Fold these 2 entries.
Entry 1:
Amino acid sequence: MIVFDEVAKRYAGGYTALAGVSLEIRHGELVVLSGHSGAGKSTLLKLIPVIERPTSGRVLINGQDVSHLPRAAIPYLRRNLGLVLQESRLLFDRSVFDNVMLPLVITGHPPRDAARRVAAALERVGLEGRGKEMPAGLSGGEQQRVAIARAIVNRPSILIADEPTAHLDPAYAADIASLFRSFNEAGVTVLVTTHDASLFAASRPRRLVLAKGLLTEDTRPTGRLAHEEAA
Ligand SMILES: Nc1ncnc2c1ncn2[C@@H]1O[C@H](COP(=O)(O)OP(=O)(O)OP(=O)(O)O)[C@@H](O)[C@H]1O
């Protein structure tokens, strides 16, 4: 479970990206977060792996308050998170295989089992047998699949993706959206931002909308508002 408790985030320079967000995401939910450019979507995502920290309020992940998590504990938290963020670009001087292997190298995974996991992750995203290729030779959609394979290779229980369908042709974007749906159906909690929520509509996600740092909409697949269901 991910909990945002009255979370505000003000960046140096005084810009308020999040103005007080309270939210609970249950295990196994598929959540699509939308909102205009600058609404605070990326900021909200970055608070979960502690890339950013809230100015006030708390973020809890499976009961642990990560808002003040010591730096040394952050890698342990991230082992359980799959991240496809704007910053998490592929290494273009490394093969597809090596890109996906990276998180396992960082966590010191035994090499033999790591290789097996990389192969499984590539198969999971439809890139089986493509490990030896270099990212530059792949299409944008395929590169995004490599980034997703890298995010899931540690078998995280939570997958977080920032605009994973941006800059993709509609057909590729739809493929990526259905890939997230399949992870969710396998039990992974998925939180994804998009400018085009209709891409994920077939997955009947919970829909959140941010506007100027405030949550303005929270609709569960039933069509009911989250606070109505909780009541
Ligand atoms: N590191 C930073 N330092 C200062 N201001 C920042 C920083 N990161 C984001 N901001 C500002 O905070 C606001 C929210 O940014 P954020 O990236 O969270 O929005 P967003 O909804 O993800 O936008 P987009 O859809 O364009 O990616 C923006 O005005 C942005 O300029």
Entry 2:
Amino acid sequence: MLNTVHLLAIPGLLIVYDLWKYLLRRHRQALSYPPGPKGLPIIGSFFDALTPRTGLETQWAIFRDMGHIYHSDVLHIDVLGDHTVVLNSAKAAEELLERRSGIYSSRPTMYMANESGWGWNFATMPYTLWWRLHRRTFHQHFRSEAIATYHPFIRQATSRLLRSLSCIQSTTMVTQYDDLQAVVRQHAASIILYTTYGITEQEDMEAFVKLVNNAAESLVTFSHGNFLVDYFPLLRYVPAWFPGAHFKRKATRWSQLTSELVNKPWNQLRASISSGTAISCFGTKCLQKLDLTFNAADATEDTSYLGMSKTDSDTKTEEIVRNCAGTAYVAGSDTSVSLTLISVLVLSHHPEIQAKAQEELDRVLGSTANSSQLPDFSDRGSLPYVEAVFKEILRMYPSAPLGVPHYSVADDVYDGYFIPKGTTVVGNAWAILHDENLYPDPLTFNPDRFLRTEPQRGAPPAKHSLNPDPELYAFGFGRRICPARHLALDTSWLVLVCLLATCNITRISSDNTEPKSNEIDPIVDLVDGPVVHPKPFKSCITPRSASAFELMKSGYEVGVEVEA
Ligand code: HEM
């Protein structure tokens, strides 16, 4: 029975609770932001944020250096009233993006990306139920245990890549960057197109590779802040004919491409399902199950904004699967390309490392002069030096040095600094992977660092030991960590080990002479998108022997087991 005291106590407690919340907020707001450039009134640190586009240095290195200047691993940058916090250390990134992932798992609104029709791409979605449904669907088919089912096709795609390289080598001694890039793009796209849509026809693949390449230019919209509309959202309402509204005209052109990206391969899959010719893949498996009905836990969240009741979830499910497939197609087409191209470039700069890896391969698997088999996934555990080379490439040249920005949905305090709700939070993977406290002598390419500290694959990777596994940082953080990292790692590892087993890669200067020095930095071109690529380079990719040449031409000689 409630008596008067109880009845008075309830509002009393509510008042105390509100007061406590109010005082806490006042206290937090009295704290200062993390240190960082002061900038000018109103425009804040706009010019600091734009520095890399002037070509002086890379954004990730500038952020790291700013951290040194301000003696802080957490930086605050105010750009036109927008708060951005950059995390330059593993400690800060793990604390905020992983341990406090309830606050830091959203994305900033990317107005220009939305204007350009990227709204279906779940990599840019805010942290909502709609995003979670996408992520869950994606995860089921790209989690580490599921990736082995794609190995036969990864092998076949790698065989094709080696064959194409052998053809280039037969016609010209020097491999031009454009030719290499075309082969590597074809390889990455074919794996993604097969795994997501079951597309295997060469002609279709070429058309879809072209489509994603045409749209690649618009990926620049994913880096928050490249367009003024990201800071002044009202600019969205400026008509395209308005003087200076170039971004509107660009957005209209890009929308056409992004719509084709998500719909064209999906419609083709739909047609092949109707005609009974579809190949088992992410799309067919998801559609067969249509298992995204809301469960009790999901139903606690307000779903009215999705405009859906539990009964029309099938239609929404198809939209989710289509969006996930489109996201994989786009996300997978560029990132792995970057890693493979960087691997070729790095090997060409380090003949001594190639020789050491080849010695291991020959010792463990037999010399390619006698071998009739390419190295395979089952050999991975027996090749620690190759593994170490792979890890050092990931560490030294992360393909997405600043990842994809996160966004905070509540006020927070870290290390005595106030981080307001609505802050864009950037995990600077490059700075972490070049932190001398974690990786001694970080600017030296030295695979040996991983021989001492990474005894076994499969063991849970240790954090904050010396030379931690770069996989921990190169693929982002927390609930938004790259969900396809296992596929990406397997794909890129197989290319690396097969190149090492069959080829010698040498560096050619732009004037076709032997390079004078072993200087390699900086190898990445400045791009305004989230993924880096090497500056164009020439190399000589020569088979190690006549039998290695035969191996390149024959590949794995295994057909893909195509499930109808
Ligand atoms: C070397 C290859 C790759 C690298 C370095 C890479 C890196 C990343 C990074 C840094 C993020 C952002 C994580 C964060 O927000 O903290 C990300 C997100 C994502 N990646 Fe990858 N990625 C690679 C390959 C792939 C591939 C092959 C696919 C698709 C098949 C893919 C699909 C995605 C998706 C869907 C997201 C968004 C996740 C979300 O927002 O929830 N990635 N990736």
